[in-house]
Amino acid sequence: MSELVGLIIGILLTLFIYSYLIGDNPLYRISVHLLVGVSAAYAVVVVVRQLLLPIWQQIQANPTGADSVIWLVPILFVLMLLTRRLPSVSWLGNTTLALLVGVGAAVALLGSLTGTLWPQIVNVRPATPLQGIVIAVLTISTLLAFQFTALRPRSSGIWQPGIGQRSVAVIGRIVLTMTFGALFAMLLSTGLILLAERFSYFITELVQRF
Fold first, then answer.
1. 113-136 residues labelled b (16+ CB within 10 A) or e (exposed)
2. What is the sign, positive or negative, of the torsion defined by CA atoms of 122, 128, 133, 135?
3. Is the residue at 146 inside a domain?
4. CA atoms within 13 A on the CB side of 80
5. Does a structural domain hold residue 77?
6. Which of 105, 113, 138, 141 is positioned for an S-S bond with 172, CB 3.0–4.6 A?
7. CA nearest 142: which of 108, 114, 170, 113?
8. Collapsing DSSP states into helix, strand and coil, what is residue 159?
9. Over the stretch 66-103, which tens digit does the pLDDT of each residue have?
10. Residue ranges making up the domain that contains 135
């Protein structure tokens, strides 16, 4: 009986999610709120069971050990972050926030360089030299499309991009538009495949039970 109830709830939530195709509606918002709430609750349980409890047990077993003392540093940063809720001492949390942003940016940048850009440079083997030149030009144009500084001042003193800079930015934006279009098409096709798979699973389960 419980499995049947879970199956019906799964069907309803799937329909609620895909109801966004006809516009934003309360059913879609309910399903999204449930997804966010369940995900947050699951994350909290995982953190407590796999991080906080092992740390607490380790500190209880050997309070003066090196492995226990070193945990005082992250605990101190967490306490400083909690002071953000207190206006009088909220400035103490700025250090933790700065550390989080700095480390997060460094990790993201290193991951992009070593996980995306460098493998592409090393593994891409153009069929012809012309193809390699085209790939290089499009890549550079895409990167320069994010340049927001200008190189040539107008007579009025307002800095405006030159013709060459605008041309490169236009090419980069065209490449970005084509890339985002392809990604959206792939995302849409993946969503339709998942929807078909879900309906196939639900129909199979219902037929087997009735």
1. eeeeeeeeeeeeeeeeeeeeeeee
2. negative
3. yes
4. 16
5. no
6. 141
7. 170
8. strand
9. 777 788 888 888 888 888 888 888 888 888 888 889 99
10. 124-210
